[in-house]
User: What shape does this take?
Amino acid sequence: GAGVSQSPSNKVTEKGKDVELRCDPISGHTALYWYRQSLGQGLEFLIYFQGNSAPDKSGLPSDRFSAERTGGSVSTLTIQRTQQEDSAVYLCASSLAQAWGREQFFGPGTRLTVL
Amino acid sequence: AQKVTQAQTEISVVEKEDVTLDCVYETRDTTYYLFWYKQPPSGELVFLIRRNSFDEQNEISGRYSWNFQKSTSSFNFTITASQVVDSAVYFCALSGDSGSARQLTFGSGTQLTVLP
Assistant: This one.
């Protein structure tokens, strides 16, 4: 079966523009996570979706960041009014439901560059 | 709060040498999971192993082995007879059992370079 897929693989944008990053989790995985990997901050948790429960947004760095997950599958991470410090690789991961501590399977990431 | 420390930023070895990557963690949870992930130059994080806090048995998988010691809060990873293809960044991670602790908390990673 297919792994986690993300699009686009690379995104270059100008400061102040909005961007949308997409994640397709592994089929059957109802838990979905977004992380950010940057040089200065390492790998940081952003947001977590589990089934129909309210998402855990505790890692979102500001209200410019939001995410949604439609139909329990595909997720979109939106960054509004991008800033240069938003430049990073955004990673999506999915895991099996109901069993926390399950291994998370990661996508290839979207490299975002804000000019 | 949980924390993972990988004190070794970079390690360089010659092929066929053994190498150990250190990982020390902090958590207030009594139940937790520890992980190792590999990130090769291609960038995709690859799951290597998961260990729960109640299982202190060491594990061996081919050239890889893991040493989990709760007494020292460590979960070290050893590669035996290293190969050039082992060159990657290796991340140790922790997942607790309470609320927001359930997401992965990663260490800063260890860049391993295996020279031919």
Remarks:
- The mean pLDDT of chain A is 91.
- The first strand of chain A starts at residue 5 and ends at 7.
